Amino acid sequence: MKKLINDPSSVVRDALIGIAAAHPELRIDHENRIIYRGDTPKKGKVGLISGGGSGHEPLHGGFVGYGMLDAACAGEVFTSPTPDQMLEATKQVDGGAGVLHIVKNYTGDVLNFEMAAELAASETGVAVESVVTNDDVAVQDSLWTAGRRGVGVTVLLEKIVGAAAEAGQDLAQIAALARRINESGRSMGMALTSCTVPAAGKPTFDLPEGEMELGVGIHGEPGRTRVPTGTARDIAAQLVDPILRDLDFVGSPVIVMLNGMGGTPLLELYLMFGEVAAILNRSGVTVARNLVGNYITSLEMTGCSVTVLKTDNDMLKLWDAPVNTAGLRWGA
Amino acid sequence: MKKLINDPSSVVRDALIGIAAAHPELRIDHENRIIYRGDTPKKGKVGLISGGGSGHEPLHGGFVGYGMLDAACAGEVFTSPTPDQMLEATKQVDGGAGVLHIVKNYTGDVLNFEMAAELAASETGVAVESVVTNDDVAVQDSLWTAGRRGVGVTVLLEKIVGAAAEAGQDLAQIAALARRINESGRSMGMALTSCTVPAAGKPTFDLPEGEMELGVGIHGEPGRTRVPTGTARDIAAQLVDPILRDLDFVGSPVIVMLNGMGGTPLLELYLMFGEVAAILNRSGVTVARNLVGNYITSLEMTGCSVTVLKTDNDMLKLWDAPVNTAGLRWGA
Amino acid sequence: MTADTGSTGAVSTATIIAWLTVFRDLVTANNAYLTELDSAIGDADHGSNMTRGMDAVVAQVGSVAPESIAELFTSAGMTLVKTVGGASGPLYGTFFLRCGSATPAGATQLDSTAFGTCLRAGLEGVVARGKAQAGDKTMFDAMAPALAAYDQTVGRGASLSAAGVAAAVAAATGRDNTEPLVAKKGRASYLGDRSVGHIDPGSASTTLLFEALARALSDT
Amino acid sequence: MTADTGSTGAVSTATIIAWLTVFRDLVTANNAYLTELDSAIGDADHGSNMTRGMDAVVAQVGSVAPESIAELFTSAGMTLVKTVGGASGPLYGTFFLRCGSATPAGATQLDSTAFGTCLRAGLEGVVARGKAQAGDKTMFDAMAPALAAYDQTVGRGASLSAAGVAAAVAAATGRDNTEPLVAKKGRASYLGDRSVGHIDPGSASTTLLFEALARALSDT
Ligand SMILES: Nc1ncnc2c1ncn2[C@@H]1O[C@H](COP(=O)(O)OP(=O)(O)O)[C@@H](O)[C@H]1O
Ligand SMILES: Nc1ncnc2c1ncn2[C@@H]1O[C@H](COP(=O)(O)OP(=O)(O)O)[C@@H](O)[C@H]1O
Ligand SMILES: [Mg+2]
Ligand SMILES: [Mg+2]
Ligand SMILES: [Mg+2]
Ligand SMILES: [Mg+2]
């Protein structure tokens, strides 16, 4: 294993020290591993918190700041944070208008946020709503399983509801908006190589030359199927087709994110975006906005994911509103 | 070789198609492989162009836009662009106030920009100044060699002179500022793994477990020495010490960039920045601003580089001025 | 009424401390194995999750010296919830928290039936939290058979020690039985059919939990 | 005055076209080899750079059918400058551009001395552009000996064909002699002492240039 770390057991702690050094505008609670906006709580504004395992940077800590999250709780690498972290963050960011928990649909994240919400209800007067993202079309959904994973839509959702909170929408409106965004977005990912969890010390899986994992998530977990690699054009089709089969995107402006898994060069991500945009064009889907880059990653895994989100003018306005975070910034 | 590409020979062309799709605010000349600001030339503003081999993204195309470059010429992967590209860009961005060529010190870049400047002088009336960056302390400098490589300082320079051009400084002032920045900055890089040039089809070098290349540049070239890997703390010292030995940074506010080589997770880059910042603090160097992320990369190489730039209040003001590019954005 | 000749003994605070300590030792020794299982159908962290959590539990128990069994269980549960995260944190945490709630306050000794009631409450907590059913390929598939075996062994009047061994053996069988299953819950469910042919990591750590229990009960 | 019995012949436009075409064929066949050399002490692109450039040169020459030797050289030089980039683009480009400037306008035939003058002008162009000196571990170290051998062979009245062979042999020796050198120019110079023990990629492509010349001149 080759990594720029001091010790596998101190990766998250050490990285938080670096984040604190790099971003004096944020407030870091090192003991609880929480990254706060410097000016939270903002009186009257709904507080937005998220969190999850580390290793997906810039998600979520990189999305804390004006127009996006109030706080992000950092778990160990690929391990969701604990209820006490979320409870503490919930208390700290409440400006009297309640707090939204943004949760990616993984058993660990869901259970820990659930316990945090229970604790918040019993120990504090803070109104808490939770939204669970589950946009990954690689996973077959069913009432009887853990359901779909939450992946790329989480990034777009955090931006849009962040702007809504900044605009003064109340908790019920924001929770409803968040659920609507989740229902309107779909993602699909692939990997050319695995990542290495620091504590595990070796790649989670082996992927020989000529093969790729199709339908991977963001935890170095194997995908739905192992298939031969292909050209960027082929791969783009293998990512976009299942998305378009799952939801009708024709007729509404969409936001497209071409997300890198962490180890793929930006040159290739742009190249892939070109292929994805071409398919969407041919399919009659109108790309109104886009993001190309590493936004929700899986350590050094190479590969990418595509997220398509159906929007309307209101959502686009919220998307365009100023945001000022380490990972996403415009208009501010 | 595992890459998200269609064909090794069309990587740059295909990526430019993606960049055009992702950034309607830019203008792409696909034939000449030039990325332009949508609104260039701006009458009375000094035009800024740069360029180099592809594979270093976001450098340089990602730095085209308000407050930074007017145009970037894209070469093949790791191969400097050609004089006709630079000549064309020079003509296109001249708003009557002349054009600055920002050149990284590699024989290829220098020779091609030199020929472009000769052609501009003989074929056009455009006033051209060139600045060559050579900030890499890994390379021993000498009159009798190709000298030091231009690396990280190039990014900071493009931002700062971009703001100066926006503020209306004239060509002579801007060229002088650019040279002063180059003289005030130093960089040092390392790699844990090699990258793979698409046309070569295999890694440029093999780097076994437990070893790293110290003093690498950004072209997958081997470094100055191969040494055992160490903790992030050790590696930070091996990068920062030669920088501090080369130039005295005490007493002036510095901008520090902790740059990823392309394949290293952001989590590790932040962790490294924490270690670098600690060393600088201990050494009495005042870090006024910082950048942490992938800014001048070497395809999927893992590793990082540190750049330290000595500034003054004027430079910091230019640094803080609004910038709106794909790769660097604030205040706009 | 039974042929078993051992004493039925009692579970004391020392037994619980031994249980937790041996469980810590077992997950530490099997850290790489648990992570290996989690690499195949998960995210390669189950070993480090359990080791981190049980290290904290044993440290906490050592530093505050809880005076009752309920306190011990609650402390272990709270510590797991606070230090593990992931799916296993809330699930193992809830297991011990519910064990604690089901233990009479202040009690320092439990007979085999009362202890069985605690364990059963723990299992019900896991189900309430995780909604797993038999055959979903989770820790439930080791825990439920373990408790059934415990109850059955105690029911025929055997010793606590024998009940512990029976539980451990049943857990191991339950763990092995997860191999051919398609995962329905947790991270492995994303793999669909590809989860077949792999042992569920949580069922493996639960087997260690009951192996540890068997060892702790062997001294009762 | 000489024992050489071959005709001294003349260089025609056809000779130059053959030279460029064979050079294209040789760099194409040696693409991986040149890139391999460039991987060791450079950035792994010399093979693809030269192949891309010479493909374009041959395509261009074929499409416009230049009528004089000077036009051929100039076209080759311009095309290399426009399509190669990197260090080799301007250097090989300048080589041919200067060969062109040194060729009498409109000439379609050159004797061995006049042709030697062209080549010498090309070498001087490379030096003017790249400032390399003997022993800097660059293409110069193959090109300079090649021209010296050419001049010497022509000087003793030997055939163009013999001069081409002598140049190719000298280039190859020059290439091999770059191996122990510490690079002073170009990308390999960043390696300092680590550049020792590797052949300079540009000296290898320059050797191919003179091998191609030898083949083209063998028909004169
Ligand atoms: N809903 C559930 N009910 C019971 N056990 C579950 C459930 N979901 C997951 N598990 C158990 O948790 C184990 C995984 O734990 P761990 O790897 O620590 O967490 P994570 O999956 O969050 O990485 C699985 O092997 C499984 O036994
Ligand atoms: N200053 C110079 N003078 C002469 N030849 C040079 C000089 N610099 C580099 N070269 C030659 O160029 C070759 C490298 O070409 P190439 O790999 O195509 O370009 P780059 O170094 O830009 O990647 C070197 O092997 C060397 O022979
Ligand atoms: Mg996990
Ligand atoms: Mg090159
Ligand atoms: Mg796991
Ligand atoms: Mg090269």
TrEMBL record, chains A, B:
Any one Gene Ontology BP term: glycerol catabolic process
PROSITE patterns assigned to the protein according to its UniProt record, in alphabetical order: DHAK
GO cellular component: cytosol
InterPro entries noted in UniProt: DhaK_1 (IPR012736), DhaK_dom (IPR004006), Dihydroxyacetone_Kinase (IPR050861)
Keywords attached to this entry: ATP-binding, Kinase, Nucleotide-binding, Transferase
Domain DhaK: 7-330
Cytoplasm as UniProt keyword: no
Pfam families: Dak1
GO molecular function, one term: ATP binding
Coiled-coil region list: none
NCBIfam families referenced in this protein's UniProt entry, alphabetically: dhaK1 (TIGR02363)
Protein name (record): Dihydroxyacetone kinase subunit DhaK
Naturally occurring in which organism (per UniProt): Candidatus Lumbricidiphila eiseniae
UniProtKB/TrEMBL annotation, chains C, D:
Occurrences of domain DhaL (ranges): 14-215
GO process terms (BP): glycerol catabolic process
Record keywords: Kinase, Transferase
Signal peptide: none
Gene3D superfamilies: 1.25.40.340
Domain of life: Bacteria
GO molecular function terms noted in the UniProt entry: glycerone kinase activity
GO cellular component, one term: cytosol
Pfam families referenced in this protein's UniProt entry, alphabetically: Dak2 (PF02734)
Name this protein carries in UniProt: Dihydroxyacetone kinase subunit L
Biological classification of the source: Bacteria, Bacillati, Actinomycetota, Actinomycetes, Micrococcales
